[in-house]
């Protein structure tokens, strides 16, 4: 009898031990925290394709200049007579009215993808648009093709045209693009061509040029549409104030490290300070298969007033 009691006690302790182990094990749906979640996602995701790896490398290996150049610095180079490759991606009519000396015109769209091989890969290529946002997109597509492109801060309207002395290096003479005979990876050419061809396929004017203006985004928020919004500003600036509901993924080398939290079944609205680095982010995300658009003017700064969320009205 005594032996039976001892056996029963041992059995009870064993069952209790198993039960306690099950209770302290996290269920499969539990939020395991950012580090564990990222590790789990990395372990379950299929290996990146060469194209995906190349897009992410543009951020992982991002140079200090973050694919941009200050407008005054660029104008100084032109004034000094440096040999430069400058691409104006504004409309042809605006290019004809006046552009930087030596600049060639590849209007925003398929003119860029159609001429990738003509752009040099052994020197910097400087790109500008109107306010910097579409140039931000363009430089990512160009760098993916091995072209060391940099966008000019704030574009023509808000940046270049306001630099002292720019009139002396503004011309109306059209310039032809010399054929550099660059070799573009076929997969990259295909992806970039699809990127620009997609502009013509946009039927909703709200998202023309892979962008959305401030009023349209506000209407989505006020209408209870709960748009997915990403701020790529610095964490400290995000903490001071951000668009309601926005998450923060600061722009830089780690921006594309873990995208497991971004949806592929809804539009992603990205904003930065003036729209330029958001443009870079949008280009990368779209090349990775996300439906991303940038907010016109970003959050807004004194340099791009009256564009930008905060410049339009107090909406924080």
Structure in words:
The chain has 316 residues and is of the alpha/beta class. The protein folds into two domains: 50-186, Oxidized Rhodanese, domain 1, CATH 3.40.250.10; 204-312, Rhodanese-like domain (Oxidized Rhodanese, domain 1, 3-Layer(aba) Sandwich), CATH 3.40.250.10. 40% of the residues lie in helices and 12% in strands. It has helices at 2-23, 34-44, 50-60, 71-79, 92-97, 110-114, 133-144, 155-159, 186-200, 214-222, 235-240, 276-287, 309-312, and strands at 68-69, 85-88, 99-100, 104-105, 124-128, 148-152, 170-171, 211-212, 228-231, 247-248, 268-271, 292-295. The strands form three sheets. It has a five-stranded parallel β-sheet. Helix 7 packs across helix 12. Residues 1-44 have low confidence and may be disordered.
Output the keywords.
single chain; 316 residues; alpha/beta; Oxidized Rhodanese, domain 1; 2 domains; 5-stranded parallel sheet; 13 helices; 12 strands; 12% strand; disordered N terminus
Layout of helices and strands, plus pairs?
Layout: H1 2-23, H2 34-44, H3 50-60, E1 68-69, H4 71-79, E2 85-88, H5 92-97, E3 99-100, E4 104-105, H6 110-114, E5 124-128, H7 133-144, E6 148-152, H8 155-159, E7 170-171, H9 186-200, E8 211-212, H10 214-222, E9 228-231, H11 235-240, E10 247-248, E11 268-271, H12 276-287, E12 292-295, H13 309-312
Parallel strand pairs: 1-6, 2-4, 2-5, 5-6, 8-12, 9-10, 9-11, 11-12
Antiparallel strand pairs: 3-7
Helix pairs in contact: 7-12
State the gist of this model.
The protein has 316 residues and is of the alpha/beta class.
């Amino acid at each position: 009898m005594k032996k039976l009691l001892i056996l029963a006690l041992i059995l009870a302790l064993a069952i209790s031990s198993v039960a306690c182990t099950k209770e302290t094990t996290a269920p499969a749906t539990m939020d395991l925290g950012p580090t564990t979640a990222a590790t789990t996602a990395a372990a379950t995701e299929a290996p990146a394709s060469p194209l995906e790896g190349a897009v992410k490398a543009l951020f992982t290996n991002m140079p200090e200049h973050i694919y941009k150049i200050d407008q005054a610095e660029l104008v100084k180079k032109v004034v000094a007579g440096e040999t430069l490759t400058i691409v104006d991606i504004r409309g042809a009519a605006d290019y004809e009215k006046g552009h930087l000396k030596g600049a060639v015109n590849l209007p925003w769209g398929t003119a860029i993808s159609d001429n990738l091989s003509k752009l040099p890969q052994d020197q910097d290529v400087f790109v500008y648009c109107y306010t910097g946002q579409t140039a931000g997109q363009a430089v990512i597509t160009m760098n993916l093709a091995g072209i060391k492109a940099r966008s000019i801060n704030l574009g023509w309207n808000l940046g270049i045209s306001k630099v002292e002395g720019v009139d002396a290096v503004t011309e109306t003479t059209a310039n032809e693009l010399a054929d550099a005979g660059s070799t573009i990876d076929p997969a990259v050419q295909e992806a970039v061509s699809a990127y620009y061809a997609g502009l013509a396929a946009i039927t909703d004017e709200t998202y023309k040029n892979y962008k959305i203006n401030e009023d349209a985004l506000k209407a989505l928020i006020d209408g209870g549409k709960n748009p997915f919004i990403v701020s790529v500003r610095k964490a400290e600036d995000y903490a001071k104030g951000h668009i309601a509901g926005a998450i923060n993924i600061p722009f830089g080398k780690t921006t594309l490290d873990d995208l497991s939290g971004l949806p592929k079944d809804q539009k992603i609205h990205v904003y930065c300070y003036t729209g330029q680095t958001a443009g870079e982010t949008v280009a990368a995300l779209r090349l990775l298969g996300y439906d991303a658009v940038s907010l016109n003017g970003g959050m807004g700064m004194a340099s791009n007033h009256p564009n930008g969320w905060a410049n339009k009205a107090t909406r924080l």
